[in-house]
Amino acid sequence: MCSGADVPQEQKAGWASFIKSLAQMTGDLSSMTAPPFILSPTSLTEFPAYWCEHPNLFAEISEGKTEQDRMERVLRWFIDTLSAQYTTRNEKMGSEKKPLNPVLGELFYGIWPDLNGRGETRLIVEQVSHHPPITAYYIENAKAGVKLQGHSGQKTSFTGTAINVKQSGHAVLTVQPKNGQKEEKYLITLPKLRIEGIIWGSPYIELTDTNAIQSSTGLTAQIDYKGKGYFSGKSHSFKASIANASGKSLQTYEGQWTGKSHIGGSKGPIFLDTTVPKEEVTVRDVSQQTEWESRKLWVNVAKGIRTGNYDEAGKDKTRIENEQRQRRKDETTNNTTWEHLHFTHVDSDPDYQFLSALLHDKLTPAHEDAYVFKPETMDVVGRSA
């Protein structure tokens, strides 16, 4: 097995040891400690921002004139999120990196300002579980009448050449159409991924299998993902279709979720071009953040990773992780439980239950838990202790 052609010379021994550990690991990999050079300076709590790096597409969903028009806008917005979520998040770092594993209670806040009358879009994220890691998020553009609530976790395993990631959780998009038609909800299931290129030390992501978007109107969008050599001979390829409640296909779409896609076939009109510049979330300066906010919490770790001072990064990362372990011990000693700030856990999500029944997908469970946003905490920033 290769020790990593793209691994820095001084890190090759550590990388070889990491690959060996991967090969011997059974079960979930989330607790593994990766070599410092493959760590990202970004915590997983920042990842929900990728849902909205084209806030215009998010805001414009409610402007659709018909149920099918709005479903197509939802599909376009969703496909547009994939490139940011899975391939461009570490452009500055050269290749895919392992994000920092958030501490329980970690917070992330951001906005996309109101430009050209689209309305302000707000983002609230909270790490609601550490073992297993689960991140809950809420995104809302009140003026546009569009909001997204969801949670995600990852279960990872190594297959010899790649890491397979099964994402747990779901998102529910709520849309109040501008034309006065009744409110719609859309269940979004999450795609699976494969992290390839591990043994060369140059990881990259491919999406695999399928995921779906189910509307309360009865319309369903199904997205099928393939890597290089399938649909078009290009990596990051997808095919999607929108069907009515009886299963009749109304329209199809295909292309690359990292580039251009077309309506009705590869020669059809352009559906989406994801290469247009993205709009990153606006976040308060670290000096103004509270202790539990991601960038403040990980500031020294991130600085060490960005400057190549991995000793500094490792030292502060260990301090944060030890503090987390001590909190859990104190809770056990005092017989107390951690209180979520922005979300309430429910064992079964009624929106999920209703929409998954419409989906008629035998692989989708009938029930799934959820983390429901507490609207009274919309303007709460940070926790007091």
Automatic annotation (TrEMBL):
Region (Disordered): 313-333
GO molecular function, one term: oxysterol binding
A UniProt-annotated Pfam family: Oxysterol_BP
Any GO CC annotation of this UniProt entry: membrane
Record-linked InterPro entries: OSBP_sf, Oxysterol-bd, Oxysterol-bd_CS
Transmembrane region(s): none
Coiled-coil regions listed in the entry: none
GO biological process: intermembrane lipid transfer
Biased composition (Basic and acidic residues): 313-332
Similarity remark: Belongs to the OSBP family.
Annotated PANTHER family: OXYSTEROL-BINDING PROTEIN HOMOLOG 4-RELATED, OXYSTEROL-BINDING PROTEIN-RELATED
Protein's name in the database: Oxysterol binding protein
